[in-house]
Design goal:
Elements lengths: L1 H10 L6 H16 L5 H6 L2 H11 L3 H7 L5 H7 L3 H4 L1 H25 L4 H4 L21 H16 L5 H24 L5 H24 L12 H22 L2 H23 L1
Helix pairs in contact: 2-12, 4-11, 5-11, 6-14, 8-10, 8-12, 10-11, 10-12, 11-12, 13-14
C-alpha cells in the first residue's frame, strides 16, 4: 500500500489544476453575465436557490448537523488518524494541503466580505440548524474548502489502478463531497456559490498539497516509529478536546471522532512497544 501511494503521489502534475481553474472561470463568467459582482447582486442571483435547498435539505436536521461537522478539519482529520501508520504518505499530503487551504481561505473571506445568510435575510425566512452565523465572511465556505481539500487528497493518493474501480472511486468521492458541502446550505450558514467556490478551492488546495510533498518531502518523518510518542500525546490531547465537544453538543459524529483517535493511539502504542 505504501509503495502504491507513492506512485499515486508521483502521478499528480500541475496539469491537474486545469480543471478547477476552468471551473472557477466558468462560475466567474456566470457571475459577470448576471452583473453580480456587487455584494447585493451576488446574493440576489442565488436567493431562490438558497431558500429552496435550505428548506428541502433541512428536513433532516440531525443528519445535516452531524455531517456538516466534517467541515471542521479537527473532526474530519481525526477520522483518518488510523491511516497514519499504514499510509503515512496520505498524512504528509493532508498536512501540507490543510496548511495551504488555511492560507488561502482567510484572505479571500476578508477580501470579498460577503454577508452570511443570517445577516442578509431575516432569521425567520429560512431554516437555521444549530448556531446562527453572522458577519461578512460567507465567501468562500471554509467548511467546503476543508471537505474538498481532504477528499481530494484521499481521492488522488488512494486512487485504484484499475480503470473501472478508478471511475467508481472518483464518483463516490465527488458525490460524498457534494453531499457534505451542501450541508452548509442546509444549516443556513452559506449560499450555494460560497459552497461551489469553496469546493473548487479545496480541490486546488488538495492538489497543491500533494505537489508540495512530491517536491519537498518535508513531512517524511511522520511515518517513522521513533516519532509515534508525539502522535500518541497529540491524539490523547485531541480526545480530551473531543470530549469537550461532546459535552457541549453531544453529536454522534464527535463520538466517532474520539473513537477513531483512541483506536489510532492504541495502534501507535502497540507498534511503538514492539519496536
Amino acid at each position: 500500500m505504501k509503495e502504491k501511494t507513492v506512485l499515486n503521489v508521483n502521478r499528480v502534475k500541475l496539469t491537474y489544476l486545469y480543471l478547477p481553474l476552468i471551473l472557477l472561470l466558468i462560475i466567474t463568467i456566470y457571475i459577470y453575465l448576471n452583473d453580480a459582482f456587487s455584494i447585493n447582486s451576488y446574493i440576489e442571483i442565488q436567493k431562490e436557490a438558497f431558500f429552496y435547498l435550505n428548506f428541502e435539505l433541512a428536513k433532516f436536521p440531525l443528519i445535516q448537523y452531524n455531517l456538516t461537522q466534517l467541515g471542521d478539519a479537527f473532526i474530519f482529520l481525526s477520522l483518518l488518524t488510523p491511516l497514519l501508520v499504514y499510509i503515512p504518505k496520505l498524512w504528509e499530503a493532508l498536512i501540507s494541503a490543510s496548511i495551504i487551504s488555511g492560507l488561502i481561505c482567510s484572505p479571500l473571506k476578508w477580501l470579498f466580505k460577503v454577508p452570511r445568510p443570517a445577516s442578509a435575510f431575516h432569521e425567520n425566512s429560512f431554516v437555521i440548524i444549530g448556531k446562527a452565523y453572522y458577519g461578512s465572511n460567507s465567501l468562500p465556505s471554509g467548511h467546503s474548502i476543508t471537505i474538498f481539500t481532504v477528499l481530494t487528497v484521499v481521492l488522488l493518493v488512494l486512487m485504484p489502478a484499475d480503470k473501472y474501480f478508478k471511475l467508481l472511486w472518483t464518483s463516490f468521492i465527488v458525490c460524498l463531497g457534494i453531499i457534505l458541502c451542501l450541508t452548509r446550505v442546509a444549516v443556513g450558514a452559506h449560499f450555494l456559490l460560497d459552497v461551489l467556490f469553496g469546493s473548487i478551492i479545496g480541490y486546488i488546495s488538495g492538489i497543491l498539497g500533494i505537489l508540495f510533498i512530491k517536491r519537498y518531502g518535508m513531512w517524511n518523518w511522520i511515518g517513522k516509529g521513533e516519532n509515534y510518542p508525539l502522535f500518541i500525546a497529540l491524539f490523547f490531547g485531541s480526545i480530551v478536546f473531543g470530549i469537550f465537544k461532546i459535552v457541549n453538543s453531544n453529536l454522534f459524529i464527535f463520538y466517532f471522532s474520539c473513537l477513531s483517535l483512541f483506536v489510532s493511539s492504541f495502534i501507535l502504542l502497540m507498534r511503538y512497544i514492539k519496536r
